[in-house]
Design goal:
19 helices, metalloaminopeptidase activity, hydrolase, alpha+beta, metal ion binding, 6-stranded mixed β-sheet, Creatine Amidinohydrolase, Chain A, domain 1, Creatine Amidinohydrolase
């Protein structure tokens, strides 16, 4: 860790004689001009502004003219014919293919959010580089679906050959609704079954069958790979490393023993694991195959008396080989997973398969092989045996279909993992403190810095911290209107210069050997408008409300989502993304099963030891974006009562980086909210100024 320059951070002094309107401009970080907010404890704040009725998500004001994104889409000029689409469509009539439409998802064979460059097929065919989206190509049309985080980015990146489908907006069809509408009845829709989860493939199959369409599994070739040809990047081949026990907190033998107990309880003889972070966590291994995520491409099958890791053995170092042997794990070639599934089925193995993550190629291979096994044993029943889990869901033939037990175990951090997360966050905070000092000095000295320049400099500061490995996602460095693109990625030669007269949003994170960070701050290097301050303050109020939430055990995350939106809702504003996601310990920056979101389907309870982000925001299209993000971990809290005999939970902060207070409209804050901000900044000074 690096100590901070003595002039960069100064202790706070809370003086009770100062009022809210008369507060000292001490600075926690000179780069942000961050004054503590003082108040007279005898005075209460009240809302004093009269608000006009909002129009949709954007309230009219004299300084901002925001156009709907659909208008920008209509005004796109016609591009030259898309040669990639032409080449792809030529393959539709190839023998053994014979399809009318082809679907290209974002995922790899493991349903990863971040994927190796060689698997970025949807980005290659469409030009849209956001992490979430699905492309559908027919013989005469091409459409791309993405969610609200990426509407503006997709508008910029898609050519006129593509139709942008804004998922979630009123009147926008789903992929299968669109296919049912544009294809003549009896069409054939092709997919690469390795790139769809079993659940997703079954849903698609059932939906298009309503118009008598057939879902065609193209096992032997991916059509995008065919046209990508030699220019397609090579698969990653970097070495795997052992994740030290002092960071993991639990050895592999203990984790496998617990998993095997789950197999016994489920009536299963083996489990197939395809999620890369689950494999890395279970085996205490880390890799470098996927950008920003310390994982390696592999499958894992755990049986009652053995385990098999399907991986490119050129990545396996002698240390890793010894580590695996000691845990009783054998190596198999990565591409032999289907043959192993067939072999286990031929023995009548009852496999545990998570249909939400295991790909359709594996699932379909298992089902076909089990049918053969039953036939060879003269068991020709019209309906094969099904196992049902505790939720009443049924699985495939002789299989146990339910959520992987590893996801929940991984989400509940042990003491060593929490310690590593806290330590890495303090080192990260020290790097950010130095970065913000540098950035404000540069801006005030008139330097012309692009959004990429800023992101690169932040990486430079972080890389000097001990244990630094990589960024945990592409840094979102957005000035002005670019900040409204929720997952904006600045590109060299195409990005903006950081404007001192506009809001600047910086969402970034890092991978350290002992932890994973994710933090967003929004700042202004000049004088913010009243509108910007109001929006920022309401986002801050939502952030504070969630941070202070106390809730009974077994509460799912969606119950808390409204805490973060309430202040925005009061004036008719909102944001189009979830409020919180799980975060891995030295693993993926986004992990499940927990979340805090307006989507009601996730009933996973928040449990002591889980980590979630707290990141409300507000975005005015083509104007500005605001987001404030800390990471929190769930802890038990003492309450004077325990209604129903249950424990109550709350949050503890992992992130300690100042929040720019000149963006705060004091008239909107309560005394308690002011206290929270002052206390938080006191903690920042106390913890980060001592970092080494």
């Amino acid at each position: 860790m690096y100590s901070l320059p003595s002039q960069a951070m100064r202790p706070l002094s809370l003086s009770p004689c100062l009022t809210r309107s008369s507060y000292l401009r001490f600075r926690i970080l000179s780069s942000l001009s961050l004054p503590p907010i003082f108040h007279n404890s005898q005075t209460r704040l009240s809302f004093s502004k009269n608000y006009t009725r909002p129009h949709l998500f954007i309230r009219n004001c004299t300084s901002i003219t925001a156009k709907p994104s659909s208008e920008f889409n209509r005004n796109r000029t016609q591009d030259a014919p898309d040669e990639k689409l032409r080449a792809l469509r030529e393959l539709f009539s190839r023998p053994g293919v014979n399809i009318d439409a082809y679907i290209i998802p974002s995922q790899d064979a493991h349903q990863s959010e971040f994927i190796a460059e060689c698997y970025m097929r949807r980005a290659y065919i469409s030009g849209f580089t956001g992490s979430a989206g699905t492309a559908v190509v027919t013989k005469d049309k091409a459409a791309l679906w993405t969610d609200g985080r990426y509407f503006l980015q997709a508008e910029k990146q898609l050519s006129s050959s593509w139709i942008l489908m804004r998922s979630g907006n009123h009147g926008v069809p789903t992929t299968f609704e669109w296919l049912n509408d544009v294809l003549a009845p009896g069409g054939r829709v092709g997919i690469d079954p390795f790139l769809f989860s079993s659940d997703a493939a079954e849903e698609l199959k059932e939906a298009i069958a309503k118009k008598n369409h057939e879902l065609v599994y193209l096992y032997d070739l991916n059509l995008v790979d065919v046209i990508w040809k030699e220019s397609r990047p090579k698969p990653p081949n970097k070495p795997i490393r052992v994740h030290a026990l002092k960071y993991a907190g639990l050895d592999v033998a203990s984790k496998l023993s617990s998993l095997r107990s789950d197999l016994v309880d489920a009536g299963s003889s083996a489990i197939v694991i395809s999620m890369l972070d689950e494999i890395a966590w279970l085996l205490n291994l880390r890799g470098s195959d996927v950008p920003h995520s310390p994982v390696m491409y592999a499958y894992l099958i755990v049986e009652m008396d053995r385990a098999k890791l399907f991986v490119d053995d050129s990545k396996v170092t002698p240390d890793v080989m010894d580590h695996l042997k000691n845990a009783g794990v054998e190596l198999r070639p990565y591409n032999s997973i289907l043959s192993e599934i067939k072999s286990l089925a031929a023995q009548g193995a009852q496999l545990w398969l998570d249909p939400s993550s295991v790909n359709a190629a594996i699932m379909n291979t298992y089902e076909i092989a089990i049918e053969k096994y039953l036939t060879s044993n003269n068991n020709k029943k019209s309906k094969t045996k099904m196992h049902t889990d505790t939720t009443g869901q049924s699985g495939g033939p002789a299989g146990v279909f339910r959520t992987s037990p590893i996801a929940f175990s991984k989400a509940v951090k042990n003491s060593a993992e929490l310690e590593g997360m806290l330590n890495s966050h303090l080192r990260d905070a020290a790097a950010l403190a130095q970065f913000w000092v540098w950035l404000e000095e540069e801006i005030h000295n008139g330097a012309k810095l692009t959004e990429v320049d800023v992101a690169d400099k932040l990486l430079e500061f972080r890389s000097k911290q001990s244990g630094f490995l990589d960024t945990s996602f592409d840094t979102i460095s957005g000035s002005g209107a670019n900040g409204a693109i929720i997952h904006y990625k600045p590109e060299p030669g195409k990005c903006s210069v950081v404007d001192s007269k506009k809001l600047f949003l910086l969402d970034s994170g890092a991978q350290y050997v002992d932890g994973t960070t994710d933090i967003t701050r929004t700042v202004h290097f000049g004088e913010p408008t009243a509108r910007e301050k109001e929006c920022f303050t309401r986002v801050l109020q939502g952030h504070i409300a969630l941070d202070q939430a106390i809730f009974p055990q077994s509460t799912p995350g969606f119950v808390l989502d409204a805490f973060a939106r309430s202040s925005l809702w009061k004036i008719g504003l909102d944001y189009r993304h979830g409020t919180g996601h799980g975060v891995g310990a030295a693993l993926n920056v986004h992990e499940g099963p927990q979340s805090i979101s307006f989507r009601y389907g996730n009933m996973t309870p928040l449990v002591e030891g889980m980590i979630v982000s707290n990141e409300p925001g507000y975005y005015e299209d083509h104007a500005f974006g605001i987001r404030i993000e800390n990471l929190l971990y769930v802890k038990e809290v003492g309450t004077p009562n325990r209604f129903g005999g249950v424990s109550y939970l709350g949050f503890e902060k992992l992130t300690f980086v100042p929040i720019q207070t000149k963006l705060v409209d004091l008239s909107l804050l309560s005394a308690a909210e002011i206290d929270w901000l002052n206390n938080y900044h006191s903690q920042v000074w106390e913890k980060v100024s001592k970092s080494r």
